[in-house]
Amino acid sequence: VDIEHQLRRGMAAQRMRLLYQPQFRFSDRKIVGAEALLRLELDDGSLLGPDKFIPVAEKTGLIIELGQWVLQTACTQIKAWSCPTMSALSVAVNISPRQLKVANFLDDLERRLELSEIDPKRLELELTEANFIDTGGESIALLNAITQLGLHIAIDDFGTGYSSLRYLKHLPVQQLKIDKSFVCGAGNQVADPVIVRAIITMAHSLGLEVVAEGVETVEQFEFLRALGCDYGQGFLIGRPMSAEALFEAVRESL
Ligand code: G
Ligand code: G
Ligand code: MN
Ligand code: NA
């Protein structure tokens, strides 16, 4: 089937869904955040993953409207999670390079934060290294402005792109997310312990927090905890789930 057609139809018919994958703190295993992950609900009720339609959305430009829907839905959800159980929780949203390049990205973001009446600290943006390669001073200024609004920025899929360490030192980011390909793999152990250790050490020397993705086993959890990894996400603690299911998971983790 034609993915572009399915995507346009899904957007028009309000068939886009946001799932939330818990992010836990290694020191006490508590859920302290969630990553918002987009899905498209098909006619038969099954969910289509973003690896199928995000590339199409980026190519066609639909990612702009889709990205705004994701940001708005996340802000609305954060506001809904104002109860004592959930009010400390932060939500991370993935941002495509093309979204950042839209001239009014910052104004749009600021307006949504204000209208939703949420603490900007509870919203995080995940940007991949691709966002930083072609960075002249312009995008550094944009990242600074985003940070000044109070949001936190994480570099997603860290280690798989071409990050220059010089940039890393000067970028206004607070977190590195170790790509899951270094964490999970065929066995129960961490897939690439040398790289994982190096990223954690480097991140901490730069004053950055580290999130490990793809934590699937107890062995991987214990290895990362021993290295002082700050946060994690993965199937061991929870898959991407509905907002209601995340609420229950957080209640049980407290
Ligand atoms: O949810 P899943 O594990 O299948 O996600 C696959 C990829 O899709 C991830 O790399 C993630 O960054 C990307 N992705 C998921 N949701 C969004 C979204 O809302 N916007 C963008 N731009 N990418 C997303
Ligand atoms: O934004 P990013 O590309 O990092 O998206 C995270 C992706 O990783 C999502 O598609 C999510 O479903 C997937 N994921 C999350 N936890 C695990 C895990 O423990 N193992 C594996 N294999 N994939 C995971
Ligand atoms: Mn991500
Ligand atoms: Na990632």
Report on this model:
By secondary structure, the protein is of the alpha/beta class. The protein has helices at residues 3-12, 50-60, 62-80, 97-100, 105-116, 130-133, 137-148, 165-170, 193-205, 218-226, 243-253; strands at residues 16-25, 31-41, 47-48, 90-94, 123-128, 152-158, 175-178, 209-212, 231-232. It contains 11 helices and 9 strands. An 8-stranded mixed beta barrel has the order 1-2-4-5-6-7-8-9, surrounded by 5 helices. Strand 7 (175-178), helix 9 (193-205) and strand 8 (209-212) form a beta-alpha-beta unit. The chain is globular. Residues 156-157, 177, 179, 213 line the site of sodium ion (NA). It comes from Allohahella marinimesophila. Residues 1-254 form the EAL domain. This is Diguanylate cyclase (GGDEF)-like protein.
- What is the domain tally? 1
Q: Sketch the major β-sheet.
A: 8 strands, mixed, barrel
What number is the mean pLDDT?
Answer: 95
CATH evolutionary superfamily: EAL domain
Radius of gyration: 18 Å
Based on secondary structure, the structural category is alpha/beta
**Strand order of the biggest β-sheet:** 1-2-4-5-6-7-8-9
CATH class: Alpha Beta
Q: In percent, how helical is the residue content?
A: 40-55%
Order of helices and strands: HEEEHHEHHEHHEHEHEHEH
Uncertain stretches: none
At CATH level 2, the architecture is: Alpha-Beta Barrel
Net shape: globular
- According to CATH, the fold-level topology is TIM Barrel
Give the end-to-end Cα distance, rounded to a whole number of Å. 44 Å
Name the features.
TIM Barrel; Diguanylate cyclase (GGDEF)-like protein; alpha/beta; binds guanosine-5'-monophosphate; globular; 44% helix; single chain; binds manganese (II) ion; 8-stranded mixed β-barrel; binds sodium ion; 254 residues
